[in-house]
Amino acid sequence: MDIERLARPEIVAMKPYVSARNSAAADGILLNANEAPGVHVADPRWRELSLHRYPQPQPALLRSRLAELYAVSEDNVLVTRGSDEGIDLLTRVFCRAGQDAVVECSPCFGMYRIAANIQGARVIDVPRQAENEFRIDFEKLERTIREQVGVRLVFLTSPNNPTGDLIGRNQLESVLRAAEGRALVVLDEAYIEFADENSAAELVGRWPHLVVLRTLSKAWAAAGIRCGAVIANPVVIGLLLRVIAPYPLSAITIDAALRAISADSKANQRAFVDSVRRRRADLYRFMSAFDWVTEAWQGEANFILVRVADAAGLVGWCAGHGIRIRDFSAQKQLEGCVRISMGSPAEMAELKSALLAYGEQL
Ligand SMILES: *Cc1c(COP(=O)(O)O)cnc(C)c1O
Q: What pLDDT was estimated at residue 281?
């Protein structure tokens, strides 16, 4: 399939910006980027990280470590400022304003719609089935992809935020078949490390129109550094490179990302993921026992979703105890729903006593 045919023609025709760092080696005497020759700050870290220099546009070592981590080749990886940037780049490259459309399955992550709105792309919603564990209506989704004109991106999330459900391999491949020659399928795997399912990243070799989004923000405990990856066919990566900022990642981020996924932190990461899964099961059991909790979804991510009689009341009560939980009750199909992230054992203990006290005063 010719992926370039799906991209905006003006992006395909455009000559990409050539920066100092991607047009020449970064060694020797560097007089080609209008930088300062040395740092002004006494902190030795500034010199170690060469913070007076522009960083590598796509840092080679980090790209290769991420490729290793996600078991794909380096040319399948674009390092980004979190997956939010991946969503934005894809929408800008593949959707013509006023003509093209993205498909989402609500309730889902809000950034797909925001990126589409900013770009002037239509949003076609194929709502999830609340009565069926919020599963996607795959028949309807595939029909929409085949029949609606102008669909360029299909956003899928596995596990989904905020419902926590997974997309199976067969379902994904069936959506990929429906989208072949028509649209890219963007599988957002922000929470996949917490799930009982392997990443679909390895499938990008087989499906040129599959894009997988990964991030260091959740299971790698590094939301503050802003680092994620788009995993896709090299043609897609090449198109996104035309639109991405010349130096998207700061040298500080690049250094921190390498530390976050280093061999040393991998053992911590595995233990963390296991503990989150245990806390999730525990909180799910704990909350399901309350009669004021009408429904609960354990999900496969680092949060649970519950439906309660009075969401605003519960969120307010928790806030009164210094605990912030997320109110989703204003969203379609999520009336009365709140999402609770897994914190530390001490934080979960505080949450539980606040919940017990809430029940008692009802
Ligand atoms: C948290 C989240 C992200 C954001 O990831 P960043 O890498 O921090 O930008 C992406 N997708 C979903 C579904 C999320 O919940």
A: 98
